[in-house]
Design goal:
The complex is a heterodimer of chains A (348) and B (510).
Chain A: H1 5-9, H2 30-52, H3 59-84, H4 92-110, H5 112-135, H6 141-159, E1 165-166, H7 170-173, E2 179-180, E3 183-184, H8 185-203, H9 205-215, H10 217-222, H11 227-253, E4 255-256, H12 264-274, H13 286-305, H14 310-347
Antiparallel strand pairs in A: 1-4, 2-3
Helix pairs in contact in A: 2-13, 3-8, 3-11, 3-12, 3-13, 4-5, 4-6, 4-11, 5-6, 5-11, 8-9, 9-11, 12-13, 12-14, 13-14
Chain B: E1 5-16, E2 19-30, E3 34-39, H1 45-52, E4 60-65, E5 68-70, H2 75-80, E6 83-86, H3 98-102, E7 109-110, E8 113-114, H4 116-129, H5 145-157, E9 163-167, H6 175-190, E10 194-198, H7 202-208, E11 211-216, E12 219-225, H8 231-239, E13 264-270, E14 278-282, E15 287-291, H9 298-305, E16 313-318, E17 321-323, H10 328-333, E18 336-339, H11 343-347, H12 354-359, H13 377-391, H14 407-421, E19 425-429, H15 437-452, E20 456-460, H16 464-470, E21 473-478, E22 481-487, H17 493-500
Parallel strand pairs in B: 3-10, 3-11, 6-9, 9-10, 15-20, 15-21, 18-19, 19-20
Antiparallel strand pairs in B: 1-2, 1-4, 4-5, 7-8, 11-12, 13-14, 13-16, 16-17, 21-22
Magnesium ion is lined by residues 45-46, 88, 167, 406-407 of chain B.
Chain lengths: 348, 510
């Protein structure tokens, strides 16, 4: 069957507009602009921190910030995808604790490689569970992942009997701090996953389907996209990211515990939204997520350096979340207004 | 099965809760043939098309494609069988680019990776074919309704197909765009494709269709060759009764010596999309029509009057009182109501029922007693039922969700909303878009009665016969500025067309 049947059948009328064609002036993608919006505050915060916090600009602190940001960003990439399909994953914190506990136990009993694989699998399993609740049982993501969040916290505590498990294998515990030209493994992994997620969203068919499902679910379904499958894949990917972060975290801390990751979901939602991923769905900004992760990690570390009590750190995350949400709201409002205005202007 | 029918639909039945949308319809189309599918709003045309597109499965009946019985469960099944569909409600994703929308779900890809270059080039070819001048990388959400319609068409053409089904493809297009599309349809047919063409524009049906199938009330009541019918016979088949003619009673009335202040007075208004400041005046009881091609500035003016976009400068007065329309709410409080051009996005509130959709713009001041604070369902219901009867809205009762109505009936509910808004200034954008011939007359009468009750009515329309039918006065726009005003007997299709195309001198004065 001829692919281009239409174009052959109807002799293309030599469009008079053809002369004025190649209008491929690629405007700066709005994604880039949105990322700059986050990069500004990041630079500002770094400058302020440098000025007021002692020891901010030390190698140890910077690398600490980077690896904290890396772990946030990795989970954040999964959250970005979930939010893009108009979903959310509240279970990331508990799932991370669960996957970390599983990793710790299996590294101790089965060795490094099986331990890592089982840890990743634990994340995937939670993701698949979320995905099935959302698709098969059509439970709203918020409620479904709230349930898994609670359940997985319990399971995480059960696997370690509520105690801490120390990981003795030095091969495993050195993994996270393995340095590639001064850059830690977790940072390298985060960068690679970031590029991968960005590529997924921008350049693959699955990415287009994710954006379509988030942007207009009905149009996506009526176009022939298998919406449930896309949702399932997204939650599994989110779970996989959680698993990866959990493995890196347990390697870094060399001890695992069922109470890890409490409140992680809010931090991660904050960075995804602050980065420019729209809560209304259909718009993902992976680069923004990475930058916002750096921002949050910088804020946390600065507050630590300044000996601000941890209660205030909760307040800070809350404020950042609030700021992120209002930025998202403002962005959406101005989109709907300028969208019209520029349309009217362009038509003239 | 040896026959020429590419598509053979037999006895299709489709029901929705409380509605039997299709009661056993038949339809056949051959290779190289254009079949016109016509019928009143709610006759079931789009329902059949959703079945052919694999979006819905019928309750009963058979679909045969190229002599084989088929059962579509998903849109992909229908596409595999060679059926490509332009749907009435666009299946576009605003957040994706034109190119990505066109190739959504049949991306040009290698190993799951989209080949952006090729996608862009193929998109450009399709856009050139349709002579649509937009960048393939532009987000669909930023396009006008007409351009979105074109993208939806490009999308259907981007697939391989034997059968092209088009559900009201010209509803949002300007006359020249529609003509171009008809040319493409003819060419596709002569290259052996089968085409099912749905439209309420009967001139298009007569221009392009070889055969016609008429649906009425979920039944296929007639089919045969186009040459056997003329327009009035077709209308009678569609409606099942003699069509009534619209008599324009207000025409010719002169408002110049009306000493009441005008309902709407616009002075030196400049807004994004307008190249020159605009002055207009609408008297109580007058219908002012704005004509002109898409992008000529009339829609931009309407948007500025309704608070959708902010005017850059100028003054607006309602009944002689200066008002500021900084937002749709402010416009509404000032007594200005606008019917949006974009029914689906800006008109209907899909998860509310038809009664709620009707009452939603009723001002607080016009509600009495308890109805100020509570929705009195009995009262609202009886108001809606009266309007339903008067406007012949086809719904079984007032609690049907508006989203489940046929396009034309949704439009009537929105006009009912205009009536209930009791606004003094009515801005009506494309009031009969997607409305059938019978209902058109009813809507014209309604517009006239709005005016008779004292409102100042502004109708912005791309349908020139419509402008001629309803206008007392007509301002024609071209390239961002008003270029001429016609009144009384000078409002003719020829004069409007000439002005709209920028030929100012050739206007003949009667
Ligand atoms: N999803 C739905 N749920 C309930 N009723 C529906 C649904 N879709 C359509 N209907 C009803 O089925 C009937 C046929 O609608 P359909 O959209 O097929 O009409 P149509 O011929 O395309 O009209 P129009 O010319 O206005 O587009 C209408 O009475 C409509 O209210
Ligand atoms: Mg229809």
């Amino acid at each position: 069957m001829p692919e281009q049947s239409v174009l052959e059948a109807t002799t293309v009328p030599t469009a008079p507009s053809g002369a004025t064609k190649p209008r491929s002036r690629r405007v700066l993608g709005s994604g880039v602009i949105d990322s700059l919006v986050v990069a500004g505050p990041l630079v500002a915060i770094v400058i302020v921190a440098w000025a007021i916090a002692p020891n901010f600009m030390t190698g140890a602190n910077i690398s600490n910030i980077l690896s904290n940001a890396a772990l946030l960003a990795i989970v954040g990439f999964g959250m970005t995808l979930a939010i893009t399909v108009r979903g959310i994953d509240l279970s990331v914190g508990s799932a991370q604790a669960f996957a970390a506990c599983v990793t710790g136990i299996s590294v101790n009993s089965l060795g490094v490689v099986p331990g890592i694989l089982i840890g990743l699998l634990a994340g995937v399993v939670v993701g698949a569970l979320n995905g099935m609740l959302v698709t098969l049982f059509a439970i709203p993501a918020f409620v479904a992942t709230l349930a898994t969040m609670t359940a997985m916290r319990g399971v995480a505590l059960l696997t370690t009997d509520g105690t801490s498990v120390y990981i003795s294998d030095p091969h495993f515990t050195q993994l996270a701090t393995l340095s590639f030209g001064g850059v830690e493994l977790s940072v390298v992994v985060a960068i690679l996953l970031g590029i991968g997620t960005w590529f997924l969203v921008r350049h693959t068919t699955l990415g287009k389907h994710i954006l379509a499902v988030g942007g207009r679910p009905q149009a996506a379904a009526e176009s022939g996209i298998r919406v449930s499958r896309v949702l399932l894949v997204v939650y599994v990917l989110a779970g996989l990211m959680v698993g990866i972060a959990a493995v890196l975290l347990s390697s870094r801390l060399a001890v695992v515990n069922g109470t890890y990751g409490v409140g992680l979901e809010l931090q991660v939602i904050a960075i995804a939204v602050l980065g420019g991923t729209s809560l209304a769905g259909g718009r993902a900004n992976v680069v923004g997520t990475a930058i916002a992760a750096l921002l949050l990690a910088t804020v946390n570390s600065t507050l630590n350096l300044l000996n601000v009590p941890s209660y205030w750190q909760y307040v800070a995350v809350g404020l950042i979340l609030l700021a992120a949400l209002s930025v998202d709201g403002i962005r959406r409002m101005s989109k709907s207004r300028t969208g019209r205005a520029s349309q009217a202007g362009g038509a003239a | 099965m040896a026959n020429d029918n590419v598509v053979d639909v037999r006895g299709i039945v489709q029901t929705y809760p409380g509605v039997k949308a299709l009661k056993g319809v038949d339809l056949k189309v051959d290779r190289g043939q254009v079949l016109g599918l016509v019928g009143e709003n709610g006759a079931g045309k789009s329902t059949l098309i959703r079945i052919l597109a694999g979006i819905e499965s019928p309750v009963d009946g058979e679909v045969w494609v190229r002599g084989e019985r088929v059962n579509f469960h998903t849109p992909t099944d229908a596409q595999r069988a060679g059926i490509s569909v332009v749907s009435q409600e666009f299946r576009l994703v605003p957040e994706l680019s034109v190119a990505d929308n066109i190739f959504l779900c049949h991306e040009i890809s290698a190993g799951g990776v989209v080949r952006a270059r090729e996608t862009r080039d193929r998109t450009q070819e399709l856009l050139d074919l349709l002579e649509l001048d937009v960048d393939p990388g532009r987000l669909v959400g930023t396009l006008s309704v007409a351009d979105q319609q074109m993208v939806e068409i490009a999308r259907a053409l981007s697939r391989e197909f034997d059968v092209l089904v088009m559900d009201e493809p010209t509803a949002a297009l300007s006359a020249p765009e529609a003509q171009r599309l008809l040319g493409i349809v003819r060419k596709l047919a002569s290259s052996g494709k089968a085409i099912i063409y749905v439209s309420h524009h009967l001139d298009e049906i007569f221009a392009v269709c070889d055969v016609i199938t008429v649906f009425r009330d979920g039944n296929s009541v007639w089919n045969g060759s186009t040459s056997k019918l003329d327009e009035s016979a077709l209308v009678e088949l569609m409606l099942g009764r003699e069509p009534q003619a619209f008599v324009h009673t207000l025409c010719g009335q002169d408002y110049h010596d009306d000493d009441r202040p005008p309902r709407l007075r616009v002075r030196e208004l400049s807004a994004p999309g307008l190249r020159r400041a605009v002055d207009i005046k609408v008297h109580p009881g007058e219908v002012l029509a704005l004509a002109g091609l898409a992008g000529s500035g009339r829609m931009e003016l309407m948007g500025a009057l309704a608070g959708d976009v902010r005017a850059k400068s100028g003054a607006i007065e309602v009944d002689g009182v200066p008002v500021s329309v900084r937002s749709p709410f402010a416009a509404r409080s000032a007594g200005i109501f606008m019917l949006s051009e974009d029914r689906k996005q800006e008109g209907i509130v899909p998860h509310l029922d038809v009664t709620e959709n009707t009452m939603i713009s009723k001002p607080w001041a016009a509600r009495k007693g308890l109805a100020k604070w509570f929705t009195l369902s009995g009262l609202e219901n009886s108001t809606f039922m009266t309007l339903r009867k008067r406007m012949r809205i086809r719904v079984p009762h007032g609690q049907v969700l508006i989203g489940s109505l046929s396009g034309g009936n949704q439009q009537k509910v929105l006009l009912a909303r205009a009536v209930e808004s009791q606004a003094r200034v009515m801005l009506l954008n494309e009031p009969t878009r997607g409305v059938d011939v019978g209902a058109k007359v009813e809507i014209y009468e309604l517009i006239e009665s709005l005016a008779e009750q004292g409102a100042g009515v502004v109708v912005s329309s791309s349908d020139i016969p419509e402008v001629v039918a309803v206008a007392n006065r007509c301002v024609v726009f071209h390239a961002g500025r008003p270029v001429g005003e016609l009144a009384g007997d000078n409002i003719t299709e020829d004069n409007i067309t000439a002005l709209a195309l920028g030929q100012f001198k050739e206007v003949s004065h009667a």
